[in-house]
Amino acid sequence: MTNKQTIKMKALLLGLAVMLLLSMFPASQSAAASACTDPAWSSTGIYTEGNIVSDNEHAWKARWWTQGEAPGSGGSWGAWQDLGACDTGTPPVDPPIDPPIDPPVNPVQGDRMYVVYASSWNTSIYDLSTANIPDYITHLNLSFVRPDTTYAQGSYAFDQEIAGLEFYEGATTPNGQKKFTAQQSQDLRNNIAALKARGMKVFVSVGGWSYSQGTQWSHFNAKNIVDLAQDLGASGVDIDWESSSSNCNKQVDSQFSCSKDGEIAGIITSLDQEINTRNSNLQISIAGWSTGAYYVKGTPFEEGKVQWGSPFGGTMYRVVKDHGSKIDFINLMSYDGGQYFDPREGYESYRAIYNGPINMGMQIAPEGSGGNVLKLNAEPGTVYDAEMLTGQNNIATQYYNVETLVQYIKNKGRANDGFMLWQLWKQRVHQPAPSGAATENSAGQYVCSNLPLNGDCSQSIPVLPKL
């Protein structure tokens, strides 16, 4: 090789080394240096995805449309991405640009969840097909699994006696306990795999009201639950802990506690540890009680400052406040609370202590308790964010409709908040919704079109026979 060739080769290698070195630095750091003289963040300003502001000697980039949320206040779930400390000595590349006034029509399509609980009683494993379940549903929760299940990995004993699921093929009947055949077990797993291949996440939901009234939760076994979830091919575990015997002291935050805090904290902690130890990549969600984050003294949700009371107020507060980092999202049971319960207040009480996604719940009437009827559209003149936290015990039924709740989440929620439905087969396994009420299809299609969701919003859940 000649000297000239050697020089060229060294120059080439030097250039490659520089490129490699530059690639090791995140783009956000470069962006921060050029963004440090961008406009200061304003609490009244309206920002859309990509807008850059300066605040507290850092540069921040908007992840989505936002107003009033201070940079850094939402942590990793917040609206602002921290681009790093400002380099005040670097002049701006471009002149400051005022943020646009009008937010985008559809800033976060595809980021929202629509979680639907699929009860197993009076149904067949063969109902869980892609033909029966609209593709705009993002998560399907198989309900319910026994908290104290003795399920053993590889047994494929998905029947009610072992797993708790009440599918026709494995139900407990007056004539004895049905058992899954090897083919039925495989068919259930195949149906779950087909739903997952389409893009849906299937969770096993543990507990529910019936499995929460005895001693089942005190015998919760995280290993058995994870074994069952993995053998089914599930994407996660939903904890529907509905203990009705937990009493709370209703003190200030630092002293607030409930008699069963240890039980629910142990459930979430042991499940999280089991998932991490086994690298199983399962997610964890919880079903949040309507008033589960109420009644902490000195907060807006103290008794007397909200429109509805409950003997179970606050039962979810400590687990969400102290162990929220272990929970991927909350499915809020914002129903069954009677005419004075305001689902928007239920949402705000959890939002005050939790930064992850919250899915506002809807129940197709007739409700299990309380007597409310979920309707599709709001009454004329309804203001979606009016009359909250007044403490006047106002009738809140005006706001319990799909239209109002969607408007509230879109305008007052965060960009990754969504909706939950109880339940996929509500009219099939219970009774038809009363006249004028929302149905599984009308509610889901409205959420799909107006939140919005990805998928074909015209798809419907077919009418299937009760088994």
TrEMBL record:
Keywords: Carbohydrate metabolism, Hydrolase, Polysaccharide degradation, Signal
GO biological process, one term: polysaccharide catabolic process
Gene3D superfamilies with a match to the protein in the record: Carbohydrate-binding module superfamily 5/12, Glycosidases
Leader sequence residues: 1-31
EC assignment: 3.2.1.14
GO MF, any single term: endochitinase activity
Catalytic activity: Random endo-hydrolysis of N-acetyl-beta-D-glucosaminide (1->4)-beta-linkages in chitin and chitodextrins
A GO-annotated cellular component: extracellular region
GH18 domain: residues covered: 112-467
Pfam family membership, one: Glyco_hydro_18
Class of enzymatic activity (EC top level): hydrolase
Top-level taxon: Bacteria
Matches recorded under InterPro entries: CBM5/12, CBM_sf_5/12, Chitinase_II/V-like_cat, GH, Glyco_hydro18_cat, Glycosyl_Hydrlase_18
Xref: SMART domains: ChtBD3, Glyco_18
Name of this protein: chitinase
